[in-house]
Amino acid sequence: MNRKVMTAASFCLSAFLIVYVVFQLVNFSGNDYVTQTVYSQTVDEQINMNGFILREETVIPLTANGYLSSNYSVGTKVSLGADLGEVYPNQSAAGNRYAIRQLQLTANALVAAQNASDTTDVIKPDDLNQSISQSVSRLVAARDDYDFSDIEQYKEEIIQYCGQKEIVLYPNTDYSTRVESLNNQAQTLAASGEGNLASVVSTASGYFVDHIDGYEETLSGLDLSSLTVSKAEEMIGAYTSYQADTSAVKIVTSHKWRYITVLSGEDAEQIRSGNTVSLRFSHVSEDVPMTVEKLVRDEETGKYLAIFSGETINEELLSIRFCSATIVVASYTGLKLPKEALRFENGVRGVYVVVMDKMYFRKIEEIYEAEDYLIAKINEDDEESLRLYDTVIVQGKNLYDQKPL
């Protein structure tokens, strides 16, 4: 065989090897699949907005500069003439006064326990256990209701009942020395501390707030019947930040309040006047049920002035004014899938899943679509439909039903 023939043969063999290797690489890469496990997820369809809260409020200026030691927590309902607290020169003086009150409370409870044991009535430990349990239950209920007006009373009851129980179990128990020590501590603190500068009395009945935000006077005269979209937008746009001013306190005199915002025409079409919706406020832990009180369309811009009314009162809501909120229009729960996993087989929309050593086509029923994913209906009764925890092929080539892997 001459040199030319050998060279030609060598060239053909090399070309064959190159083509074969490329073919194998392409064929291998076509079986290199990216998979993803399918999980259930709930997606909320929302309307996002910015607005402000309007309440009926009475401002009570403090008559002295200093630190207010409140007798009530924010959101507690108080009556006209209620003692709201005392103003002290500084926080340290207020803390000193609180410590004195707690010492006196404990001393009074122990004296009551000692006096109760001196009677001829037979007191059973089980009865005392029940009394302790009831006071603790009232204490927990007050905490859950954000009503701290009777907290000290419940605390004194618990100390007294526990003291009585100890006397019943150990008859030689004597609290006189302990009471004397507590009273001496209170007297020492009272002598070394600064007194209060002024007392604060409620000039209205309603819900107590230990500060103002500066919008009380501005918004109290707001006429909702003449409020326009442009004016509401101007007010919302001018807001910078929440400033708690402790130079005054206020009483929210009505349990009914409003949230005012501006909606696009598209968003406004999703709600109706008179309907109840759930508003999710920023910095508020739970959704708030509110009624769509009014929707007023601006003919020039097509936007809507939206007024929602609610009756939920708590510390979180009373401590915000201008805030963002969302309305949950609808919720969708199903199987979350990336859109790149979608395939069609015989005109049916679905995905390919991996089962053992094969891939199978599983159809889907879409219930919600986002930009890069969708939510499919959970249909566990249909063997041909996608199921929870299936392994879906997200990327891959040459996919077909029952293809070996």
List keywords for this structure.
405 residues; alpha+beta; six-stranded antiparallel barrel; four-stranded antiparallel β-sheet; 9 helices
Question: How many strand units?
Answer: 21
Head-to-tail CA distance between termini: 47 Å
State the shape. flat
Task: Round the Cα radius of gyration to an integer and report it.
Answer: 36 Å
- Strand ordering within the main sheet: 2-10-13-12-11-14
In sequence order, what are the helices and strands, one letter per element? Answer: HEEEEEEHHHHEEHHEEHEEEHEEEEEEEE
By secondary-structure content and strand pairing, the structural class works out as alpha+beta
Portion of residues in beta strands equals 25-35%
List unreliable stretches of 5+ residues.
16-30
Proportion in helices: 25-40%
- Tell me about the biggest sheet? 6 strands, antiparallel, barrel
Mean pLDDT over the full residue set:
87
Counted by DSSP, the helix tally is 9
Set out the fold topology.
Blueprint: H1 3-29, E1 34-37, E2 40-54, E3 57-61, E4 67-70, E5 77-78, E6 83-88, H2 91-117, H3 125-144, H4 151-169, H5 176-192, E7 198-201, E8 206-209, H6 216-220, H7 229-238, E9 248-252, E10 257-263, H8 265-268, E11 276-281, E12 288-297, E13 304-310, H9 315-318, E14 322-338, E15 343-345, E16 348-355, E17 358-363, E18 366-369, E19 373-376, E20 391-395, E21 403-404
Antiparallel strand pairs: 1-20, 2-10, 2-14, 3-9, 4-6, 5-8, 6-7, 8-9, 10-13, 11-12, 11-14, 12-13, 14-19, 15-16, 16-17, 17-21, 18-19
